[in-house]
Each structure stands twice: as C-alpha cells, then as structure tokens.
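Backbones bend. We report:
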Amino acid sequence: MNRFEEKVVVVTGAGTGIGRAVAQRFAKEGAKVLILGRTENTLKETAEADEDISYVVADIEKDEDIEKVVSEVKEKYGRLDILVNNAGWAPVTSFSDVRMDEYDKVFGINVRALVNITLHMLPMLKESKGNVINMSSVICKNHLLNMSMYAGTKAAVEIFTQIWAKELAPEGVRVNAIGVGSIETPIYGKTELSDSGIKEHIEKITKAIPQGHFGKPEDIAAVAAFLASDEAGFITGSIYGIDGGFGA
C-alpha cells in the first residue's frame, strides 16, 4: 500500500520502540519521514530500515532545536502532512517521593515540548490540511499507583487533543490521540527503578491486562497509519485505546 505517497511525516522520539515502528510503517506506505531524538545511534538504526527515513538529532525541550527541525522540514521537503508527537518519559514514583525536578522534567517533555513543536509545525499542517497524532496513555482510564505525574501529563494531552480538534477542524486539520497501553519498549529502562523493581512493575501490569500480555510497537503503528489516512477522514478529537482491554 502507498497510502502516504508524497506525504511528509515528522515523528518525535523515534529512535526506539513505538516511534521507530511508527516511522517505519509510514515509510513502508510511501511517506517521506523525518525522525527526531536525542541519541544519534538509535536514530540511525531506525533510518537504516528505509531510504525514505531521515533524521535530525534534536532535543524538543529546547526551543532552538525545534526551530532547527522546522527549518529542516521546510528546506528538505517544503511541506508537512503528519505530525506524530510520540516523545515521552514515564517516571514511576509514589507521590510522597516526587521531587520537583522530576515534575518539571516529565511535564517539560510530555506537555510543554508537545505543545511547542505542534505550534511550530501548525502553519505547515494548516497549509496541507494535515494530521496531528498525539500519544497518550491508557493510564488516563485505568489509574496506576506511583504514576500520578505521568498520568497528569497524559490527561493534559487528551484534553489538548479534543479541544485542538474542534478549533482546527474548520481549517481541515485533524487531531487524534492514541491511548497507549502496555507495549514492549525500552521505556521502563529509562526510569529510576532497579532491575528487580522493573520486573515487579511489569508483572503487576501484565496481570491486569485482560489479554494477558504486552502489545507490540507495531500495534500502535498500525493505528497511527489508519488515523492519518483518508479512511479516517471523518475522525477527529478521538482517543483510540490500544491496550489489550486494560482501559475497558
């Protein structure tokens, strides 16, 4: 299928996991894809899968890096059709142990950076009558202990998605979110949990998933491709839960 031939896609946090799968899926379906992240070697690994994927090393918490990405999109492609806001961080900390630097970091990555890059890309998206896909989390429906900071950021993302969808619909821009469930990615290795703590956390979550197992990044990529396609042309302001029944 070449549903996205001549389309340009930007995916944040695409060095590994969900972002990598999303980028590779869009490229497989004909899109030109620009991926962002802070680690060049993982971005290279993602890009090596398809000649239509290129990358920019960028920290979307930094305004100057976002401006660099916007310039790259304009110079390299001259347009933007789809923005996938995937970059995120998920600390696992009880509220009693939360530090304000941790709060600033998770809201900086998951909320401020998402808003900032979307605002910067919006003129091009309006011109193409494009799509924004935000990665949220099933945790907004089924709350987990020790993840209040992460859940708070994703609740904000879901509200943004719904209001932006209403505001931008008259200009032809669709905005949707994916409520990501438990997916096999390196995200837990980025927490401050010990190896045994990670194992215990994963086992606890797995028991609560009706289907009894974690999903794959490709499960998310498939839905992202659908939401950005013409087949989903009458869908905006929606939040699709991909979670094995965890949020039911």
In short: The longest strand covers residues 131-137. Helices lie at 17-28, 40-47, 63-76, 100-128, 148-168, 195-207, 217-228.
